[in-house]
Amino acid sequence: MSEVADPVGSNKSRMNYSARKRILIAALFVVCLLLLCGATRSSFVTFGQNQVVRRWQPKVVPASAIFVGDQACVDCHKDEVTSQRLTSMGMAMEPVASAGVLSSHKTMKHSIGGFSYEITRKGEQSFYSVTDGTDSVTIPIKYAFGQGKAGQTYVLEYDGGFYESLLSYYNEIDGLDFTIGAQRGIPKSLRAAVGRRLSDGEVVNCFACHSTGAVTGGKLHLEKLTPGIRCESCHGPGGEHINAIKNGGSAIASIFNPAKLSGDEITEEFCASCHRGNDEYSVLQRMEINNVRFQPYRVFKSSCYSDDHRISCEACHNPHEPLKVGANIYDAKCLACHLAGGKPAKGTTTPSKSSGGPFAPACKVATKDCVTCHMLKVELPGSHFKFTDHYIRINKPGSAFPN
Ligand code: HEC
Ligand code: HEC
Ligand code: HEC
Ligand code: HEC
Ligand code: HEC
Ligand code: HEC
Ligand code: HEC
Questions:
Q1: N or C: which end of the chain has fewer CB within 10 A?
Q2: What is the average pLDDT across 362-379?
Q3: What is the CA(354)–ligand 4 centre distance, in A?
Q4: What digits encode the pLDDT tens for the residues 141-174?
Q5: Is the CB of 242 under 6 A from ligand 1?
Q6: What gap in Å lies between CA 246 and CA 297, rounded to an integer?
Q7: CA angle 3, 57, 307 (to 5 degrees)
């Protein structure tokens, strides 16, 4: 599932919430205003009681960073470690030896024109092969991207470089089909039938978004790779924290907790570093319906959106737990801001001005299952999957997807 490459390791200057809003409005008239709204930020910030903690950016891992691994956290944060490993993010890349999709499918077959494909399992190894009837290529699979909830794509080492497999596994059809974004149609050569050769920048970016420790100082270090997004991807290297505790230092001042960021910083900077946000709107808007996958970009468009923590990613998703499924679970999240009938929902405190102002209006149509009508599931062509549109809005039947 290819993504448009964005730079890793570059310390992009970031904008704050009001700058983002201003830009959205200004962009309608003068794109040049962009330059005026950028605000550089130091990588050290002071939180509360003069604690100075390094501000961690998940994809800006310095060359000097040494990760200790999530096993080092288990003694003191057992619950987080146990459940986080089983989340989609924890399994964003499957180790081939224990991969669910690959080990449960002894052979998967597909053909395109005269090309026949097979993914076969032998012991703890899987092989991707393609033949045009005369010549054939067989490549051991080393990197299985995605836990396979929507699908799984293979990054293959071939001909001195890395290739994104032309075919991916899709859960819905329980079989192979074209990788999203790949050129559909009969490949022009056996090489093209293997997949698309990735540029060095794309390779770095793929591994930075789907694994931990493999990219430091903007360079690929596959020998240090831990598959999936683990603790230190989001919290930074943990060695200093563990040492501090053992030596009677501060547990809190020695590690980064994203809870200290503003709501907008979590959504549009922290989670958006992989999920992609409004700072990239000029690229994402042009992707049309394909941008439904980029939740920070989508939610920013909603009139619910502000710097308020109740509408930032972690309000609805605990990154240490698997995704909660079912509309009713999210009602309380909406009713933290919206009136239910004429009054605030039970258990909600009146929001203060600083956290979003007075209550937002009630729905005249329904009192529950809010997301079924206001966060539509959108079938993304070619993905065999329905993504949840995080652009919360009133949906008029038959209206086109707003880019
Ligand atoms: C020896 C015990 C110990 C180990 C090992 C340990 N932690 Fe902690 N951690 C603590 C304590 C104590 C606190 C502060 C109390 C609390 O909030 O649980 C803390 C707090 C935290 C916080 C919140 C900081 C804040 O500002 O609120 C994060 C994040 C964290 N740890 C991550 C990790 C990660 C990641 C690892 C593994 C690399 C790890 N810890 C290993 C004991 C430990
Ligand atoms: C380092 C990159 C990275 C960061 C940072 C990141 N994510 Fe993710 N996230 C991923 C990838 C990759 C997947 C897809 C994993 C898969 O399905 O294989 C994902 C999947 C998810 C899912 C889908 C879970 C499911 O079961 O379908 C949720 C929810 C999510 N992320 C929330 C968050 C939130 C909230 C934050 C910020 C606190 C965040 N992510 C930050 C990379 C990241
Ligand atoms: C900018 C960060 C980023 C980059 C770069 C990236 N991904 Fe992802 N990927 C994500 C996130 C976030 C998700 C979860 C949301 C979604 O499905 O789009 C995801 C989802 C996926 C999924 C679906 C996972 C599932 O469980 O269904 C696959 C497969 C995948 N990516 C493969 C790749 C491959 C292969 C590359 C490189 C060629 C790549 N990705 C590059 C962030 C990234
Ligand atoms: C995808 C990013 C992500 C990953 C991976 C992640 N965390 Fe967190 N963590 C967060 C965010 C965001 C918060 C702040 C949550 C909030 O605001 O409620 C947090 C908060 C914490 C806290 C503070 C207590 C709390 O729950 O608020 C601890 C402790 C912690 N994480 C430990 C861990 C450990 C241990 C791991 C690995 C098993 C881990 N985290 C993996 C994003 C992540
Ligand atoms: C107001 C609540 C809310 C907020 C805020 C929110 N989400 Fe979601 N998210 C949902 C719901 C509802 C689902 C679908 C759950 C289900 O399938 O039942 C979902 C699903 C997802 C998925 C799984 C793939 C999909 O499309 O269904 C990912 C990934 C995700 N969210 C990431 C994020 C990120 C990143 C943010 C921050 C920009 C975010 N979400 C903010 C409610 C929210
Ligand atoms: C942080 C507070 C907050 C949260 C959480 C929140 N909203 Fe909103 N929402 C608002 C505000 C503020 C408005 C704008 C009200 C206005 O314009 O008078 C709004 C507007 C709306 C609108 C009207 C949109 C339009 O285009 O006219 C709908 C529909 C809506 N919200 C549904 C939801 C649903 C469903 C959820 C939960 C998934 C939710 N909201 C969560 C604050 C919130
Ligand atoms: C069955 C579909 C459905 C469900 C479920 C639903 N809504 Fe709505 N909602 C609508 C429609 C349709 C409108 C537009 C009504 C109109 O314009 O007359 C609307 C309007 C709204 C508005 C705009 C109100 C205004 O006066 O501007 C908000 C806010 C809202 N809904 C929030 C919610 C919340 C919160 C929930 C869950 C408690 C919810 N909705 C559940 C269909 C639904």
A1: C
A2: 96
A3: 25
A4: 999 999 999 999 999 999 999 999 999 999 999 9
A5: yes
A6: 41
A7: 90
